[in-house]
Amino acid sequence: MPRLGVVLSTLLALCACEDRSPSIAVAVAVDQRVASQVLDNFERQSGVRVDALYDTEGAKTSGLLATVRARNEGAPLGVWWSGECYATALLADDGLLAPMPSDLRAELDPRNVGSTHPWLSSVARHRVVAWRPETDDPPADWLDLTDPRFKGRIAMADPRFGTTRGHFGAIKTWLDSSQGKEAFAEWARKLAANQPLIVTNGNAGALEAVLRGEADFCATDSDDVACAEVRGELLMSTPLRHGAQPGEGPLLIPSTIAVIASGDCPEAWDLVRHLASAHSQSVIGSECGDRIPPGQSGDSLDVSPTDAARAMNEAVAEFMRAVAAQRAAASSAGAGM
Fold it and tell me: What is the pLDDT of residues 132-175, one digit of tens each?
C-alpha cells in the first residue's frame, strides 16, 4: 500500500502539471505602459501567462536587482528586461544569467548580441543635458558641468539609482583610463561644489525641476525629453560628449534582455525571441519617438557596460562624500555668521 500511495501521488502530480497553464515570471524595469503591451501580445500569441514584476520610481532598477538576487534561491524569476545595461552587467558578473543558446545567438541581429555577454541589447537612449529655450550658454561637455558658472543651476537624479548611477560609473571608468585615478575624484568634488539640485524622483524629476524654473539645466535621458516634448513642453537638449577624441562621444545606454539562470526554461527563451522581434522592437522604439536602434549610435563613449557597472558604486560613493563635505562646510559657514 505505501508503494501504491507513492504511485498515486506521482500520477496526481503529473496530472496537475499537465493541467497547469505554462507561465513565466519577468522582472521588468522599462516603462510599464509599453512593457505591458508587448507582454500582452506574447501571452495572446503563445498561451504562456506572464507574471510581471515592475520596478518602482524610487528605487528604479537597483531595487529590482535586489529582488532578483533575493528570489534566486526561492521562486526565481525567468526573464530580466531592463531599460539600461548596468544592472544587467552586475547580474552577469554574479553568474546569475543563463548563457544564451548558440542557435538563438545565431538567429538574432549581430548588432544586438555581443560576442560573449549573455544578454541581448535592444533600443537605446542617450544621456543628455536639457534646458529651456530662453536659457543661454549650455555646457560644452560633461566635464564642463564643474565650471563655476553652473553653480546652483544644475538638477540631476539621485546618482544612487537608475541611469545616473551607470553614467557615473562610465565617467569614472573613462577618466581612470584617460586622465588617471585621481581625475574622477576631482571632477566629483568640483561638481559637488556647484551645489546641484539632487532630486529623488529620477531623470523625469530632474527635467521637471528645469520646467518649474528650479534649475537652468538638468542631466537626464533623451527619452524623458522626448516624452516632455510630446506633452507640449518647449525644451532644448543635446547628448553631450565627454571629450574631443574618438570614443569620447555621448553615452548611449541600451535596453537589455536576458534569462535568469535559476529560472531558465523554454518559455523564457520564447519570450526573449518575442522581445527581440521586429514588431516588439518597433513598439518599444515608438515610445515618445526617441529610441535608437542598436548599431546606429555614431561616436559614443567607448566604455563597456561591465566596466562601468563595476565602477559605479565607488563613483557614486565618491560623489556623495563630496556632497556631504560641501553641505557640512556650508552649514558651518552659516552657523558662524
Answer: 999 999 999 999 999 999 999 999 999 999 899 999 999 999 99
Contacts for 306 with CB less than 8 Å, ≥ 6 apart: 89, 92, 93, 117
Please, what is the Cα angle at 167 between 62 and 319, to 5 degrees? 85
Q: What is the pLDDT of residues 78-92, one digit of tens each?
A: 999 999 999 999 999
Fill in the DSSP letter of residue 262: G
Q: Please check whether residue 267 lies inside any domain of the structure.
A: yes
Q: What is the CATH number of the domain that holds 74?
A: 3.40.190.10
Which residue segment(s) compose the domain that 322 sits in?
125-251+302-335
Q: Work out the angle at residue 14's Cα, subtended by the Cα atoms of residues 10 and 16, and round it to the nearest 5 degrees.
A: 115
Query: Beta strand pairing status for 252-259 and 49-54?
Result: unpaired
> How far is residue 30's CA from residue 52's CA, in Å, rounded to a whole number?
11
The verdict on residue 295 lying in a domain is no
Q: Please state the pTM of the whole predicted model.
A: 0.88
What are the CA-CA distances from residue 97 to residues 33, 89, 274, 285, 294 (Å)?
Answer: 26, 9, 18, 25, 21
Q: Do 68 and 77 touch, CB atoms closer than 8 A?
A: yes
pLDDT at 136: 93
Contact present, 303 and 173 (Cβ < 8 Å): yes
* Three-state secondary structure string covering 30-89: CCHHHHHHHHHHHHHHHCCEEEEEECECCCHHHHHHHHHHHHCCCCCCCEEEECCCHHHH
Do residues 113 and 142 both lie within one domain?
no
Collapsed DSSP state (helix, strand, coil) of residue 337: coil
Cell of 293: 536602434
pLDDT band for position 200 (cuts 50, 70, 90): very high
